[in-house]
Amino acid sequence: MKNEDSSLNPSMPDLEKKLLERIQASEMPLRIMHVCGTHERTISKYGLRSVLPQNIEVISGPGCPVCVTPEEDVDIAIALAKSGATVVTFGDMMRVPGSAESLLDAKSGGADVRMVYSIDDAISLANKKPELEVVFFGIGFETTVPANAAALLRKTPENFSLLASQKQTPPAVGLLARDSEVDAFIAPGHVATIIGTKPFEPLAEKGFPVVVSGFEARDVLLGINLLLAQAEKGVSRVDNGYPRVVKPEGNKIALKMMNEVFETSESEWRGIGNIENSGLVLRKEYEDKNASKKHEDLYSTSLEEIKAKAEKKDKKRCICAAILTGKAKPSQCPNFGKECTPKKPSGPCMVSQEGMCYNWFRYSKEGGSRFA
Ligand code: SF4
């Protein structure tokens, strides 16, 4: 059945038109999950959901890196900053609420928190200001981890350390395949650029069609076409819909660097819980660069204070966890667009341009297509 908004825009380029016509011609019901904040941005920005037929639903999984960073890691970063360290991180991360406050709140209270664009900026600050104890709060998926590994493989100054909250995508997708009502997956093209297509094969072996997609609207439409083709034939495999960038074996140099510096661990995902083998922590040889161990004595008192403050805090109920697992839409959250907006986010999904609530607020009809 066609969606009421599904008429084709006459200005749409021919390739997109053809891809969409093929999708609209299919009657196959398919609930597709993507696990990438950039895919959500493309889907929301170009209004792709509004042109898909009603039998095809695309939902968002846990693909926004700041959304899945657990409160506890944010609390440690804040405790470090309040204890005298200079905590540097990406702009989005500064606005993500911990259990009591955000890094930006801590900065307003006098803590030394600064924004950087990369780990190299953080190292450069540590080199220029040897009197500071610089901690880089490094978050993200396999896409950003190689840059952290490359930096640590070079000699870094003694007053520099890493607070790592890094995640691996395939174990989380594997968990969602078990627990969510999803028929097929769009795998993230930039993660696959590093790890290749092989790590997604266990999903296909369990019967889920998978496609690795790029980030243009036409890439996402092509991805949906490839998933439909698999579903219609009753097969499941990993199709590479982004061959101009992704090689089946990934980026061997980046993988080698990651392996040299980090090892796999269990990891806490905000709202989802601990997922086995989904984290990347520093290897023993790099323990002197591990901020959470190096400065444990320094920040433990501040961390206790943050936890005590969090217990007294009247928390607005945030349903990010349900949104990140495809069980709810942002407009179902009572705070959406009221207490929680991109200017004043109550939860992590409203902070970043990759967050589902942010994109829903900014682009969707249900969100009011408001421009923040
Ligand atoms: S609208 Fe805000 S409070 Fe509600 S789920 Fe999204 S981020 Fe959380």
TrEMBL record:
Protein name per its UniProtKB record: [NiFe] hydrogenase metallocenter assembly protein HypD
GO molecular function: 4 iron, 4 sulfur cluster binding; carbon monoxide binding; iron ion binding
Annotated source species: Methanosarcina horonobensis HB-1 = JCM 15518
Keyword Transport appears in the UniProt entry: no
Superkingdom of the source species: Archaea
Family to which the UniProt record says this protein belongs: Belongs to the HypD family.
Pfam annotation, one family: HypD
Keyword entries, A-Z: Iron, Metal-binding
Keyword ATP-binding attached: no
UniProt-listed Gene3D superfamilies: 6.10.20.100, HypD, alpha/beta domain 1 (3.40.50.11750)
Any one GO biological process: protein maturation
